[in-house]
């Protein structure tokens, strides 16, 4: 099951609504602005009700600082969906993705993400993006993808 960045299907929404974190003078994380880039499942038959988050920084280009799985549904929902309670435990809530890139700061960024997720407005935004992504026409190989970069919004904000 492939994942695609929200900005590849809905660049205007991603530019306007990507959550960012600005950190200065902290011992637990280098100074800078971090973007929480949302990726959603490409499989039209899948209804996993989750998002993969890449944490990136304008200062480090394409480096992924953390990869976070976030499922907003209950463990019971994912247990029914996967028929595997062990997997359901990994899908519900926020967790570092075990097979994708992580930096030495991944756990700190996960903690920041969890504090942001406590904000119901952000969870509702992720859900809305999930359904908007699913409703948008997938980018076909014949269609040229827009020139969208995860850090583009960060760059504009720093000007």
Question: What characterizes the major β-sheet?
Answer: 6 strands, antiparallel
Question: What form results from the Cα inertia axes?
Answer: globular
The whole-number mean of residue pLDDT values reads 86
Low-confidence stretches: 140-149, 151-159
Percentage of β-strand residues: 15-25%
Helix-strand sequence = EHHEEEEHHEHHH
Class from secondary-structure proportions: alpha+beta
Number of helices: 7
- Give the helix level as a range of percent: 25-40%
Explain the overall architecture.
With 159 residues, the protein is of the alpha+beta class. It has one domain (3-158). Helices cover 38% and strands 24% of the residues. It contains 7 helices and 6 strands; from the N terminus they run E-H-H-E-E-E-E-H-H-E-H-H-H. The protein has helices at residues 6-9, 11-17, 75-82, 85-91, 106-117, 120-135, 152-158; strands spanning 3-5, 19-23, 32-41, 50-57, 64-71, 93-96. Strands 1, 2, 3, 4, 5 and 6 form a 6-stranded antiparallel beta sheet that branches. Strand 4 (50-57) and strand 5 (64-71) form a beta hairpin. Helix 3 (75-82) crosses helix 4 (85-91). The longest helix is centred in the C-terminal third of the chain and has 16 residues, at 120-135. It is globular and about 45 Å long. The relative contact order is 0.22.
Keyword list:
disordered C terminus, 38% helix, 7 helices, 159 residues, six-stranded antiparallel β-sheet, single chain
């Amino acid at each position: 099951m492939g994942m695609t960045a929200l900005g590849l299907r809905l660049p205007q929404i991603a530019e306007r609504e990507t959550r960012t974190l600005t950190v200065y003078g902290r011992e637990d994380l280098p100074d800078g602005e971090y973007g929480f880039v949302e990726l959603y499942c490409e499989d039209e038959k899948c209804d996993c009700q989750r998002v993969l988050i890449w944490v990136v920084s304008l200062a480090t280009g394409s480096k992924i600082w953390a990869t976070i799985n976030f499922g907003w549904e209950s463990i019971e929902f994912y247990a029914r969906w996967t028929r595997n309670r062990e997997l359901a435990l990994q899908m519900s809530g926020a967790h570092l993705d075990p097979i994708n890139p992580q930096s030495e700061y991944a756990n700190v960024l996960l903690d920041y993400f969890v504090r942001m997720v406590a904000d119901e407005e952000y969870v509702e935004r992720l859900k809305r993006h999930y359904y908007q992504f699913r409703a948008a026409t997938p980018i076909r190989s014949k269609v040229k993808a827009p020139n969208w970069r995860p850090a583009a919004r960060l760059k504009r904000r720093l000007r």
